[in-house]
Design a protein that fits this description.
heterodimer, A: mainly beta, 7-stranded antiparallel sheet, 2 helices, B: Immunoglobulin-like, Ferric Hydroxamate Uptake Protein, Chain A, domain 1, Maltoporin, Chain A, 7 helices, 5% helix, globular
Amino acid sequence: MKKQASKFLMGMLFVGTFFTACNKDDKAPENEEELITTVQLRFTEVGNASNVLTYTFKDVDGAGGAAPSLNQQIVLAPSKSYTMAVKLLNESVTPAEDITLEVVDEADDHQFYYVPSSNLNITVSNLNVDSKNLPLGTTSTWTTGAANSTAGTVKVVLKHKPGIKAANDPITKGETDIEIDFSARVQ
Amino acid sequence: MSAKAQCNIVLSGKITDADTKKPLENAVISIVELNKKVVSDKNGNYRLTEICKGNYNISIQHIHCGTIVNHVHINNNTAQNFALPHTVNELEGVVVNGTVAAKGTQISTELKQRALDATRGASLGEALQKIAGVNVLQTGANIYKPIIHGLHSNRVLILNNGIRQEGQQWGSEHAPEIDPFIANRLSVIKGASAIKYGADAIGGVVLVEPKLLRTVPGIGGEINLVGFSNNRQGVFSAIIDGNSKKYPAFSWRLQNTIKRGGNAKTPNYWLDNSGNQEINFSVAAALQKQKSAVEIFYSFFSIKLAIFSGSHIGNVTDLLTAISSNQPPDYIKNVGFSYAIDRPYQNVQHQLLKLKAHTLTGGLGKLNAIVSFQNNWRREFDKKRFQSSSNDPQLDLNISTLATDIVWDHTSIHHVKGSVGITGSYQQNSYQYRLFIPNYEALNVGAFIVEKYTHKKWLAEVGIRFDNRSIFNTNSNLGRFYTNQTYSSFSGNMGVTYQIAEGTQFTVNASSAWRAPQVNELYSDGLHHGAARIEKGDSSLQAERANSVMANFTIQKKSWSADIAVYYKKIDDFIYLYPVNPPELTIRGAFPTFKYAQANIFMYGIDASVSYDISSHFGWSGKATIVRAKNRTTKEWMIQMPADRFENALQYNFSNSKRINDGYAKWSITNVLQQTRVPQTGNIPVTKNGVTTMESDYLAPPPAYFLVGIEAGAVYRVKENTPIHFTITISNLFNTVYREYLNAFRYYADEMGTNIGLKVKIPLFNKS
């Protein structure tokens, strides 16, 4: 009886070793694909191409982890017009990946919104359009009025609307890919 | 060779008391498989006749002794004597109703036969909700997790065919990866009284128990067909088992389930992308000899679950938009029915391989050894950012567990019997893509002893257990390393049962159990799939400890019966998630951020089920589940606790006719109250009519609801031995619009509307 029991325990042990040996090695490090880590707003003054202003929001490790590492305030001069081009980057990979190109490729599914707070004398217009003539907004024109005594915010939103993008969509429609409140002032 | 000639074998013998050696009168000797019973006479003699050749489990029970179950091979007239209470019970013990000793002092409720048939086609969590004291944590129409006494996930242990299920229990949307068709009995052991299964089951234990392997030579089986109207779901499940005529010790079983459902429908709109697909199978084989047995079991579970597209949000602004519009946007609502599963969806695979063996250790008892290997592979696919994006998942978690249990069940020595065991397991988890749970390895070692003392109408049980858990080699794919953790402690349980009469008994038990923090509680750091929330672990968490007292009273009188349990739990360092303010700033806007923290809490509650036979045809039954939980320091109610739930049912049983038996129709009303016991303030800024207040949740719990359901069934005998079981269930008969507090999707959409289910069970060949 004793012999039988020990034989049986040995058998169990053998099976155990077999399975342990099967464990895979750790997988190669990988990260979330097409992570947007950086939003860059590039302003070029109309009629003065040498006046270029760039403002950046950056969170290199994506959502969670460390807090955003860069969050700049937009400062525009009063009574001017600027052409603004937005650039999205994935800087968690080297070399950095330009995600703006993919937004432009699938322009029919995406839309940028720029919403200045009511106390700011900034108007955003002239958003570029997709193949269906609906706004896309990778480029736009920002027009400033008189200088503001206090700072406000400009909300920059990118919505993903696969197959449902239509004219006059509210900002609430679709899924949010980007939503940043840039602090801004006109001075 | 006539079948009749083989079926006149006689099994006879004498039943004696193993301690006093005196004959035992009134012992019940039954052949489990044949449902044949006799009672021993005053000299302890018994005689069972008209038995066919085969292998049977013989159960012998006596009111003053333990129950024993013996496996016998019968080829011709057999004389077999039995001595009681030299009990040799297996770890998962064959439960025989009506005996104090077999069950122990655990407080358990089970779902089997007709009650289980009525749940066929539903997921495990959904089926368990039929038991008083069990609620479900839901994520949409597909994902159900059992909650026992207000506790869930890592605090509820699920044993699949005797093996502790090791899946990815990290979140409310991670349902148990088990095919309920495998079970012919689902049991819930409430509270931490079953310490032999593990220390951390503070909420309770769920046992998913398959049918015993066939012991009568031949082949048999059944087919289950289920159809549901709401999501046009079809289920096919088949089971075939056999026992070799040539080698009567060899038995086998094959089982598989295929399931497919499409979008579910609320009373007013379809839930876009809410289908499911499931393919499962299992294989079992055993060699059962008189003194030893070896069993092998393999099961494969695979599910693809769509996640309702309206629940997949980008950030907290999207969540607030969804809440304020009170229903999904038109472009989601106007999508019709489809079986197609699009992103976001989950794909989960679970495999289990189990080897079990036992051998009798002389007359002293039985030595059991189990080795199991499990692999759980979970992939979560979010909506694609671009059409050109790869088809890869966003989250990919793979967990493997190797476990061994060695348990010695010893026979009764001076009315004391019990088990001693050691358990060990090694676990490895690795991830790809987005970080949520880091890679880690874990080692668990435990030892326990459980002893029962039986005397007359009394049963006393004492158990003690020691566990050590260590988590090591924890790291992220980006090269970050986390500290190793080791936890160890004792848990214990004490209980007494007094049997007043057959079916009427009173049990009290007290237990102290602990649970080590899990990896997600320590180190999770990142986005939760589609829920648009960030969860952050805390590596300084301590183990939590629950001290609880439970009492259970069951009574069975002629026309009525009741099963009432009350409990009180004091949990120190209870680990829970709380919202952090301000929410975390990301490139996608603000994300609700939750952190793990600890608090001293207490919980109490009552589960009751009562039934009364108004006449020989008419019966009433009622069920109630009430849970209360409070933070002992702040005196605030705990969040996410089930609301009070009541169920009333009237049942009519039809008289049997020649071909139709066991017909019944049941009318039930489920009433779930509004959860008003939630923390009054919190860390979440909620703006309503221009006023911002700090709340504990984005949306207050939904109002109370009433649901009416119908269930009817009958057995139709095509031939004498071919009973076909039919069951019809109608849930939410009046297509009521409602939302459930414990459904994570209550922010986005209503619950499912009327759903008619048709279930048919057909026996297969039954050749012998």
